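Reopening this one. Same input as before:
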Amino acid sequence: MGRMRTVREDWPERDGVAVFNRVYLTVTEEIDRQIHGGRFLDPGTATTLDVLFAERYLAAVDAAAEGRRPAACWRPLFQYRRHPGVRPLQFALAGINAHIGHDLALAVVDTCEALGCAPTEVEADFDRVGETLVALEERIREELMPGPDLLQIADPLTHLVGTWSLERARDAAWAAARVLWGLRELPDLAREFTQRMDAGVGLVGRCLLTPLR
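Same output, byte for byte:
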């Protein structure tokens, strides 16, 4: 969390990556509260998953800052971060899409390798993290897309963000983690699967960042 608090001070408030960073910091703080509040069956496993998950986002931040290309899933957010026609909610969802759709599956595998366990042993903590994300998603949408309901129905943003679901992305991440775990003895196939997953999530992110003006 310290890194996320530090980097947010370097970006303008309207910067698209800064928008996602604020959202993700809120999520991370909530998960940390739940870990310390005993909401997770295995706090050690939950902490490992949380840290390894966050490290993948921060790796993308570092890559962009150093002039390297971040993972394909993150490129649209960094490319469009200053586009005046993209709204804050789009930036937030594009970041969540990249982090859940790509990073979460890899973080599950990283956690299993670090702890010497199988995905089934972290499933309960994975589900708890997912439940926390889903609970916060509606609040995020309301905070970043204020306005009367009638205007929201007519707003193109309503239709655009309605095509993406965090719950579906979370389910896909779990399925991908299980596939990757099954492919751990087949590194070439695992690498190809990861690359295709990365590219597919990046394409969804690009659609979510469609300028609306």
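So the earlier flakiness isn't reproducible anymore. For the record, Residues 88 and 145 are 8 Å apart (CA to CA).
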